[in-house]
Design brief:
Radius of gyration: 19 Å
Order of helices and strands: EHEHEHEHEHEHEHEHHHHHHHH
Strand order of the largest sheet: 3-2-1-4-5-6-7-8
Helix content: 40-55%
Largest sheet: 8 strands, mixed
Number of helices: 15
């Protein structure tokens, strides 16, 4: 397996960052955007000025608006938002070669179906091998070559290992795994919990409250993952605890920023500056899936209720703090 050419499907901030990371690892990269003008502007300026301004595209990255050209690669990184993945994958099915690894880099659950991202790929691209990349990583850090570690999971260990080798560089360390479900559960769940952490910060409830929420949020995440037979060590690793710590503790997280604005009283439509926060879409699906398997997730339920307008933030906080006392689990 030689993954010397990589097609990155989606030229948002995260796709651009991963394109640079792959180029830094010595790969030849095609970075796809559906907009021909956007592709031409990136090629001319050698920068994604609309999504990641001030960060130069590395020489190994070629922007393109042709899906067929982007798919002329040995592996694909799917970096479009979670709720857009199915539509893009259906378009890919018309041009992609069979047998390629398709690495999902979005962190979410499809709201219409309750499917994990790897299941969406399996549905729409049955001739490809789904894989998942996740972990504590901000696009700007990765694109600039700041030290970052993530995990890549694929059903075959040899494929996961070779993909990790192909994407790794001294600045971007990629661990490999086969627990795909654990990796994607960690990435999807932490987004919802980060909104809760942002609300706590925006409401100025204190660092003690934020630490308690993060710890109890991790307990929820772990219970949910066990219900899907994920490995405990996966959740204790980069895609679980590592990503949760990052997104629950930094205003650079879009989900945290969205929650912070909600906590300050900003209207939901304006929260987070209008930027995409995957947890807003994941919350309802996560809660419904948890209830279906009898998994208690009171923090996630509170976030979902606040986002849906069924309860206000003060009432949600009171409900969480007055739940019956019990042994810590």
């Amino acid at each position: 397996m030689s993954f010397d050419t990589i097609g990155v499907i989606g030229a948002g901030a995260w796709g651009t960052a991963l394109a640079n990371a792959a180029a830094r690892a010595g790969r030849t990269v095609k970075l796809w955007t559906r907009d021909p003008e956007h592709a031409a502007a990136m090629a001319a300026a050698r920068e994604n000025a609309t999504r990641l301004p001030g960060v130069p595209l590395l020489p190994g990255v070629t922007p393109t608006s042709s899906l067929r050209e982007a798919c002329d690669a040995r592996a694909l990184l799917l970096t479009v938002p979670a709720q857009a993945l199915r539509g893009v994958a259906e378009a890919l099915a018309m041009v992609v070669k069979q047998g390629l690894p398709a690495v999902v880099c979005a962190k979410g659950i499809e709201t219409a179906t309750g499917h994990f991202m790897s299941e969406v790929v399996a549905d729409t691209l049955p001739g490809l091998m789904p894989a998942v990349l996740s972990g504590p990583s901000f696009a700007e850090d990765v694109s600039r070559g700041l030290p970052t570690a993530v995990v890549l999971a694929a059903p075959l260990e040899a494929v996961a290992e070779q993909l990790a080798l192909a994407l790794s560089s001294p600045a971007f360390r990629v661990y490999h795994a086969t627990d795909m479900r654990g990796v994607e559960i960690g990435g999807a769940s932490k987004n919802v919990l980060a909104i809760a952490a942002g609300i706590v910060a925006g409401r100025a409830l204190g660092e003690s409250a934020k630490a308690a929420l993060t710890a109890r949020g991790f307990a929820e995440l772990s219970r949910f993952a066990r219900a899907w037979q994920a490995r405990p060590e996966t959740l204790m690793g980069l895609s679980g605890l590592g990503d949760l710590i990052l997104t629950c503790g930094s205003a650079k997280s879009r989900n945290f920023a969205h929650g912070f604005d909600l906590g300050r009283g900003v209207a939901p439509a304006q929260a987070g500056g209008g930027k995409l926060a995957e947890g807003v879409y994941t919350a309802r699906a996560l809660v419904e899936m948890a209830r279906a398997r009898g998994v208690a997730m009171p923090i996630a339920e509170a976030v979902d209720a606040v986002l849906a307008g069924r309860i206000d933030i003060d009432a949600a906080i009171t409900a969480l703090m007055t739940r019956p006392l019990k042994a810590e689990d």
